[in-house]
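Structure ticket #2291
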Amino acid sequence: MSEVFATTGTIAAIATAVVPQQGSVGIVRVSGSQAMALAQTLFQAPGRQTWESHQILYGYIRHPQTQQLVDEALLLIMKAPRSYTREDVVEFHCHGGIMAVQQVLQLCLENGARLAQPGEFTLRAFLNGRLDLTQAEGIADLVGAKSPQAAQTALAGLQGKLAHPIRQLRANCLDILAEIEARIDFEEDLPPLDDKAIISEIEKIAAEITRLLATKDKGELLRTGLKVAIVGRPNVGKSSLLNAWSQSDRAIVTDLPGTTRDVVESQLVVGGIPVQVLDTAGIRETTDQVEKIGVERSRRAANAADLVLLTIDASVGWTESDQEIYEQVQHRPLILIINKIDLLEESERKILQSQIQVALEAHQRCGPKSQIVTAAAQNQGIDALEKAILDIIKSGKVQAADMDLAINQRQAAALTQAKISLKQVEATIAQQLPLDFWTIDLRGAIQALGEITGEEVTESVLDKIFSKFCIGK
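Resolution: structure written out below.
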């Protein structure tokens, strides 16, 4: 392994978030051959408590030379191989905050342990056969999950639901390789290969790879979330819409145009999908320098968003300013929000919708696929808005329906390479090249599949994966 992941010796790290005056418990985790000896040096357990595996001891952490009391704590013991890393692991469960855990960590470092690198506990679990790479990545996804659905998908990866089909595909490729190599070594003793049967098996493997690749977009959506920008003229109710949607007072709401001067963010979950909602400054021409900066940021937010909610004021109707904003954002996935609909009678609502349709047709525009009426100040129309968002997600490449697994970019790249290699095997067979040529790309597919689970993995890949973990994991 590289110097970044020199997985020798006993390591220690704070395994919980350290926040001043917050958190009731802070954990210092230690793993390695000297973990138990270090615990016995620092921890005093009164009475006749037994130092056995998977026991929790109550006692005191003291400086080994001065015997100064550092903290009253619990000690959790997990002896190899029944631990996260399959090494001896101890955890000091201290009082929360900053000082206690930092002092305990410093004592560990002064008495034989070294500070763990990011992800080194999980790396050791992988190297010791406790986890495969897909499970390790599932742990990272679980820690970073932004919604219940993202957490469930991460748990599926942690439980091996991705590793199992990958291993099966790799085993199938190995079976085909064994058949080919047997004909190379013992050609005279075995019947000739059935080319059609080999191609059929390869096509089945490629089809399963295609199915797995189809989960990539959903995986990205669950991990990074959907960025939604609320745009429109000043005073059309954008901030009221954000507040009603997030059920909070994130944005200031007044009757004065131009109240919102900057982009206001709120984190929501819609149908299990994390959504970052951006309430932008009203887009209009202005001489106010501060507002002008806010308008420019609004335009940038709209162009960077995955979905734009163009909001108009129903009581004013479709204006030239609305049309100009629509021209700027119509290239993005778009939902038209007709807000303040409670201020109109039913007949006036129909006239307004006809007006909008005529205006869009006059400019040879088909208009947004979804038009939602809301009364944000009255908390009306939010359910319809969320349904429209989910419908747009489902209509595209990304599926919002439940899946057992969702691959990440690294896994998708390896699967794509495996698929390309298999297609090349088919081409080699079609060209009637010697059997030795068949094995070249078949081995490439086997290697690519092995990189996903870790059967075949390079040091640089491990560095890239585990460096993204927090230090205590």
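Closing remark: The longest helix spans residues 163-185.
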